[in-house]
Design a protein that fits this description.
This protein is an alpha+beta fold. It folds into two domains: 14-145, Glutaredoxin (3-Layer(aba) Sandwich); 164-207, 2-Layer Sandwich (Antioxidant, Horf6, Chain A, domain 2), CATH 3.30.1020. Helices cover 31% and strands 22% of the residues. It has a five-stranded mixed beta sheet. A hairpin with a 6-residue loop joins strand 1 (14-15) and strand 2 (22-23). Helix 2 crosses helix 4. The radius of gyration is 19 Å and the shape is elongated. The protein starts with 13 loop residues before the first strand and ends in a 5-residue tail after the last strand. The mean pLDDT is 93.
Length: 212
């Protein structure tokens, strides 16, 4: 079983899904991606999550992020589950759910954790950059639903820091001040960041969000 770490190349795969055969890289194209796993179909917390994900699709689209989910059940089961999700969550599932009955993708992405369950995937999230590198991994216990506001916040941070020499501080939200990269001397930072640089400590310099 592979172990996926930050910075690794996200493994490609082809698999059946709720919308038919999918090649992962082809599906993502040259944009960002978010892959999230579910232990099984017809599970209560995951039903709320998939419904929430569908409601957030416009926000992910704005950020050029394609969503794709995974469960270890088959396509027919997925499509029946989608009916329940649409009914109970008052939405329309608008992204594919991978059918992973043979657990090929689950094992490829290290989603089977024996201490949780030998047969079911844990509830993991992978955010993947356009170069197919893994930028974020979060694994949730079965009892805790994912926070999609946080996933959007993290994507905003990842996209900002991918293109600017900054980092985002605790609780950062899009548009708030950011941290200047420690690798940049202060005088150089002042020439790079035209909105200004505040030196709080030599190692802690703040500047307005350069993308705002």
């Amino acid at each position: 079983m592979a172990t996926i770490r930050l910075g690794d190349t996200a493994p490609n795969f082809s698999a059946d899904s709720s919308i038919g055969e999918i090649n992962f890289y082809d599906y993502l194209g040259d944009g960002w991606g978010i892959l999230f796993s579910h232990p099984a179909d017809f599970t209560p917390v995951c039903t709320t999550e998939l419904g929430t994900a569908a409601k957030f699709k416009d926000e992910f689209d704005k950020r050029n992020v394609k969503m794709i989910a995974l469960s270890v059940d088959g396509r027919a089961s997925h499509n029946e589950w989608i009916k329940d999700i649409n009914e109970t969550q008052h939405t329309t599932v608008n992204f594919p759910i991978i059918a992973d009955e043979d657990k090929k993708v689950s094992n490829l992405y290290d989603m089977i954790h024996p201490k949780a369950d030998n047969n079911l995937t844990v509830r993991s999230v992978y955010i993947i950059a356009p170069d197919k590198s893994v930028k974020l991994i979060i694994t949730y216990p079965a009892s805790t639903g994912r926070n999609f506001h946080e996933l959007l916040r993290v994507i905003d941070s990842l996209q900002l820091t991918a293109y600017h020499k900054v980092a985002t501080p605790a609780n950062w939200q899009h548009g708030e001040d950011v941290v200047v990269s420690p690798a940049i001397p202060t005088e150089e930072a002042r020439s790079i960041f035209s909105k200004g640089v505040e030196e709080i400590k030599p190692y802690l310099r703040m500047t307005p969000d350069p993308s705002a």
